[in-house]
């Protein structure tokens, strides 16, 4: 099931996408079954439908927190000069004010001269949980979406920690929707800029798999419904600048596209 969040005028709703084409993409026939409230306590359609073409998708969730996993693909750890892969999942936070939805601009802050895209598979948590053992990780996962862990690489290195580099407003595009039926193994995670592909990784190359990540994060902090875990970026990150369009594509979920603009 594909759960989206959308705006009609200034009002926000959750909904279930129906009538996707053979490739799983929205088309002329696509409609959205409107949900009563949010989907984390059960999927409750309110009986209304809207045409996909008549609405604007927004970020599928505004989490209370976004937990990033650093250096979870060995080849990316090597290319960024941030040292070897960690012996346990390396956890950092991005503020929820960094979230933007599909089609919303990523704003380039003036403090950085090297801002890079990081295409990542994002886990969306479905229930309040803590200390979740690997074997029960699937029980607390609501679904998955695409993420771009936008990073000011120069500040990441010069600050010595990652909060500013990864925390600027608009530095966490999420979407275009949450896929609730998704097998994360052997999935391509790709990123292109202006149509040229820069990242082409595979989730099988994660240092710590999905269950291990959920266990490690929930051993440190309580997770709430809608919280998002970014599972790390494969190699191939590259610089983005105003005027670019960045597309994160994950097989079985979809494509998250964002234009890049200078911060006003
Ligand atoms: Mg990352």
Automatic annotation (TrEMBL):
InterPro entries in alphabetical order: Fumarylacetoacetase-like_C (IPR011234), Fumarylacetoacetase_C_sf (IPR036663), Rv2993c-like_N (IPR018833)
Annotated Rv2993c-like N-terminal domain residues: 1-60
Key word Metal-binding present: yes
Keywords from the named record: Metal-binding
GO BP annotation list: carboxylic acid metabolic process
GO MF term (any one): isomerase activity
Fumarylacetoacetase-like C-terminal domain: residues covered: 65-261
Protein name: Unannotated protein
